[in-house]
Write a structure and sequence with these properties.
- The chain is mainly alpha-helical.
- It has two domains: about 5-275, ABC transporter involved in vitamin B12 uptake, BtuC; about 285-405, Orthogonal Bundle (Arc Repressor Mutant, subunit A), CATH 1.10.10.10.
- Helices cover about 75% and strands about 5% of the residues.
- The chain has helices at about 5-30, 35-55, 60-85, 90-115, 125-130, 135-155, 155-165, 165-170, 175-195, 200-215, 220-245, 250-270, 275-305, 315-320, 325-335, 350-375, 380-390, 395-405, and strands spanning about 310, 340-345, 345-350.
- A three-stranded antiparallel beta sheet has the order 1-3-2.
- The radius of gyration is 32 Å and the shape is elongated.
- The mean pLDDT is about 85.
- It holds the Pfam family Fe_dep_repr_C.
- Keywords: Cell membrane, Membrane, Transmembrane, Transmembrane helix, Transport.
- Its main location: membrane.
- Belongs to the ABC-3 integral membrane protein family.
- One of its GO terms (biological process) is response to zinc ion.
């Protein structure tokens, strides 16, 4: 069993601060539909680190911060300048800048590795991250940067919310959103540098993108999403860090991102909002609603044709082509909702059931008449379209159809519109 040394606590506390700050900035980018910006910045710091290493011939956190931030600012300025000139679309600019800057960084890194003292530099750890090398000074730097990010976010929360969700309104108020964009870029660059030691350059971008994406499946509010993203980010970071500390030669960055990926899969499958499970449940619920309305409409038509206030399950089976078990299940539901009386296979509409079934038939026949009169469709083209559309006609659309067609009494087949 792993013993929790003081260095382990430094690493976990750093992960907590990094998770909160990256989730705040990542959520802002996510809601502004600029998630790739964090990706570009995280990759573009590599050339700056390599240049700082070559100039000062050693690892120095301060000069790494200066060098990495400088190339990240340069990459951001390059994107904004070309975007203003409308040379290329934004997505092409982002992808091109990421590839070029990271490619230059890899070339410089290869050159460093060929130097007599380059192999011992350990600079390659900045690509994938290695939490076990995190010092107390690194932890303090991450904590300070994260506290600054959190303080700026809390103090400027209202302004940030307007800027993120209503840029046009912010512009109309002469809002200094250009300044906010500049601050965001600065914080992204500095935070990307701060996360190098624990997460790594290549995968720091995942800390900006994946937690807000996961949070979107659980919380839809801005603040709630940030809290959820912070929790998810710290959970994945803790798992990844523990794996890299317990199992030798496992880099921290990939371990964290793999953890985030598994959480993302769970969220996509079973999340509270817009998950595959919810979509499947909604689809089945909608299909069930259509079947119920189809049965209710068929009961009305059978009663209308017979002139009696009753029908039976066998006639309903012949009319709907549904299996008996399904008809019985739907009829039992209707009986619980007091729409019908269902005894010994006999079906009798209650006043509430008659009103509900009349409305479905009315919508069907109204739509057939609308298609016939306004779109001049032949009679054999009317029924199938009305079968589909009748389930989506709202009371407002129903009232509008009645008004424009002057409250008609007959459909195109000369049947009464109830």
């Amino acid at each position: 069993m792993m013993e929790f040394l003081p260095s382990t606590w430094y690493i976990l506390i750093s992960a907590l601060f990094l998770s909160i700050s990256s989730s705040i900035l990542g959520s802002i980018l996510f809601h502004r539909r600029q998630a790739l910006v964090g990706d570009v910045i995280a990759h573009s710091v590599l050339p700056g680190i390599c240049i700082a290493f070559l100039l000062f011939q050693g690892k120095n956190l301060f000069w790494f911060l200066v060098g990495g931030s400088s190339t990240a600012f340069l990459a951001t300025y390059f994107i904004q300048y070309l975007h203003r000139k409308k040379v290329l679309s934004e997505d092409v600019l982002l992808a091109s800048t990421l590839s070029v800057f990271f490619g230059i960084g890899v070339l410089l890194l290869s050159y460093i590795q060929q130097l007599p003292w380059g192999n011992q530099s350990g600079i390659d750890r900045f690509i994938f991250g290695q939490a076990s090398t995190l010092s107390s000074l690194d932890a303090q730097v991450i904590a300070i940067i994260s506290i600054v990010v959190l303080a700026l976010f809390i103090s400027s929360f209202r302004a940030i919310k307007v800027w993120v969700f209503d840029t046009q309104f912010a512009s109309a108020l002469n809002f200094p959103f250009k300044m906010l964009e500049g601050i965001l870029v600065v914080l992204l660059c500095v935070l990307a540098m701060a996360g190098l030691q624990s997460v790594g350059i290549v995968l720091m971008s995942a800390m900006f993108v994946l937690p807000p994406s996961i949070a979107y499946f659980w919380k839809r509010s801005f603040v709630g999403g940030i809290v959820a993203a912070s929790f998810v980010s710290f959970l994945a970071s803790a798992i990844g860090i523990m794996l890299s500390l317990i199992i030798p030669h496992i880099p921290t960055g990939p371990a964290i991102v793999v953890s985030l990926f598994f959480i993302l899969i769970i969220s996509v499958a079973f999340g509270k909002h817009n998950s595959l499970y919810n979509k499947l449940k909604d689809k089945r619920k909608h299909a069930s609603k259509i079947d119920e309305e189809h049965v209710l409409k068929s009961i009305y038509k059978l009663i209308e044709a017979s002139g009696e206030n009753r029908t039976d399950i066998y006639a309903l089976h012949k009319q709907t082509k549904m299996p008996f078990y399904k008809i019985e299940k739907i009829c039992n539901k209707f009986q619980k909702r007091k729409l019908i009386k269902f005894t010994k296979n006999e079906i009798v509409l209650t006043p509430a059931g008659k009103a509900a079934s009349k409305r479905i038939v009315r919508l069907h026949r109204l739509w057939e008449l609308y298609l016939s009169e306004y779109l001049q469709l032949p009679e054999d083209h009317l029924h199938e379209s009305a079968e589909d559309i009748e389930h989506y006609i709202t009371p407002e659309i129903e009232a509008h159809l009645l008004t424009i067609m002057n409250f008609p009494k007959k459909d195109p087949h000369q049947k009464d519109i109830p």
